[in-house]
Amino acid sequence: MENAITTTDLPFKRFSTGKVRETYELEDGRLLMVSTDRLSAFDVVFSQGIPYKGAVLNELSLFWFKKLGNVVKNHLAKEYDVAALKLPGRIQRRAMVAQKLRMLPMECVVRGYLAGSGLKEYMQTQSVCGIKLPAGLKNSSQLPQPIFTPSTKAQAGHDINITREHGEALVGREAFAKAEEVALRLYSAAAQYAKTRGIILADTKFEFGELNGEIVLADEALTPDSSRYWPAALYEEGKNQPSYDKQYVRDYLEEIGWEKKPPAPVLPDEVVKNTSEKYIEAYEKITGRKFSR
C-alpha cells in the first residue's frame, strides 16, 4: 500500500488550506484543488493520512460532476487539462482545475434517512433543523421524503445544524431557495443511480457557489467524506448500518471513548488499512470501475 499524501508543495500561489484539500491559484486566476489523503473526523484533522483517500475523493467527484451535469453546472474548468500542469503522477490523480466562485457560507445537507446528528436531534425534539418529522421514526428510518437541512460552514471546529431562517439570514432568501431546490434534485438523481448499484444514499452534503448569478456545484460531490452510503441488501431499520464511508473510523473513535477534540488519537495500522479499503470499495461499487492502486 502506498504512503499517504498529507501535504503538498507545488510551485503555485497557495490560495487556501482546508481540512482535506490544498488549493492553489494559477496564473490565469483559476484554482488548482488537490485532495490530500488527510483524514478529518468529527471536524478534527488527524496526523495520519489514509492511503489512496485523496485519489478516491477526486476521481469519484469527477465521476459525479459528469453524471449530474444535466442537473446543475459545476465548478470544473472544462477546457483545462490537468495533465498540462505536469504535476507529479500521485498528485495529478488527486487534482482538478476549478473556476473561482463566490461560495455560499452554508453547508447544504440533504437527508433521505435518519442518521448521525439528525437522529440525535430527532430523538430530543422530533425534528431536524426545525423540520418537524413523524413520531415513531427509528435509527436509519427512511424519511417520508428527503429534507434539506443546512449547517454552518466552520473554518475550524464543528459545523452546526441551522434552521431555514438562519440559513436565509446567512445567504439571502433567494439564494437559499435555489440551493435547496438544486440540492434536493441532485440528491434525488444520485440516490436513484446509487440504487441501481445496490447502494442506499442515506444523506449527503453539497457546497455551492455563484458564478454570473447562477448556482454552481463546487468542492466535492457525493464522496465517502461527504455522504453516507449503505449496502441496500443489508439495510435493516432500527440500528446502525454497515457503510461504504468513513463511518467505520467514526465508530472506532466512538468505541475508544475519544472526546472528539484535538489532539486526535493515533489510529492502529489495521484501522488505517480498513478505512482505505472502505474508500476504495465505495469508488468501485458506485462507478462500476476498478480502482487503480
Describe the overall structure.
The protein is an alpha+beta fold. The chain has two domains: 13-101, Phosphorylase Kinase, domain 1, CATH 3.30.200; 103-260 and 276-287, D-amino Acid Aminotransferase, Chain A, domain 1 (2-Layer Sandwich), CATH 3.30.470. The protein is built from seven helices and 14 strands. The chain has helices spanning 53-67, 89-92, 116-125, 164-171, 173-196, 247-255, 269-287; strands spanning 13-17, 21-25, 31-35, 38-41, 44-49, 95-98, 102-103, 108-113, 127-128, 131-132, 142-148, 199-211, 214-218, 227-231. Strands 7, 8, 11, 12, 13 and 14 form a six-stranded antiparallel beta sheet that branches. The protein has a four-stranded antiparallel beta sheet with strand order 1-2-3-6. The chain has a two-stranded antiparallel ribbon with strand order 4-5. It starts with 12 loop residues before the first strand and ends in a 6-residue tail after the last helix. The model has no long low-confidence stretch (mean pLDDT 94).
What structural category characterises the helix and strand content? alpha+beta
Number of domains: 2
Low-confidence stretches: none
Q: What share of residues are in beta strands?
A: 15-25%
End-to-end C-alpha gap = 8 Å
How can the largest sheet be summarized?
6 strands, antiparallel
Name the CATH homologous superfamily of the largest domain: ATP-grasp fold, B domain
The general outline is: globular
**Average pLDDT taken over every residue:** 94
What's the CATH topology label of the largest domain? D-amino Acid Aminotransferase, Chain A, domain 1
Radius of gyration from the alpha-carbon trace, in angstroms: 18 Å
- The helicity comes to 25-40%
How many E-type strands?
14
Order of SSEs: EEEEEHHEEEHEEEHHEEEHH
